[in-house]
């Protein structure tokens, strides 16, 4: 069983949604929290709630801002101590038909969903390695990072996060750092509304004709507090992949079967 009390966690997107659920689970275990988000009202509310349980510092951060990231990391560690738990959780759920794709939509999606993770890793991994005391990284991807759907923007960004996480787990184990990737299905968050608000003039929100139905799926999904506990349990088990339910299983089976069936049969000399 991991000793949580005394650890310091840095959580992007920590003022709301899955990030807040993770923060609540860690706060109950005595972990000190550095919460970042672009929503200052959510951060203020989160600090008011969680400060009753543990030390909390909040910072407005756009994960695309590398300079700001490094500055906030310094401030967080000066107030709370060295960060040994990193949660690269901030993300958006963009959508675009192929005919309306453009470079701006690609840049916005990859800058937040992928480069935001890279920025967190590049900020904190060197510090963890230099201290030599290990650590833990949890990157939030999606079931869409394991099984492709027709939403190429979102799928591309999340497949990248899954691959990054799997590779990173192998690469940093020698430093006592472990890595998990969270692959949620539907979770009751406001991610669709949040995505719309950061569009920066780009139409990346779901079309209105499917938005209402998709929002209903999210609302019927797992609540964020349960996800927070799932993440903690996954970390205790040092799981590579953490799921929020079994929704993805049959799609994974279909994908794995298709992959295996596409591999050429071994030549006789390979069998021998």
UniProtKB/TrEMBL annotation:
Q: What is its EC number?
A: 1.-.-.-
Tell me yes or no: is Ribonucleoprotein among this UniProt entry's keywords. no
Q: What class of enzyme is it?
A: oxidoreductase
Respond yes or no to whether keyword Oxidoreductase is given for this record.
yes
A Pfam family that this protein carries is: adh_short
| Superkingdom in the source lineage | Bacteria
Q: In the record, what terms sit under GO molecular function?
A: oxidoreductase activity
Query: Which keywords fit this entry according to its UniProt record?
Result: NADP, Oxidoreductase
Q: Which family does it belong to?
A: Belongs to the short-chain dehydrogenases/reductases (SDR) family.
Name assigned to this protein = SDR family oxidoreductase
Species whose genome carries this gene:
Amycolatopsis pigmentata
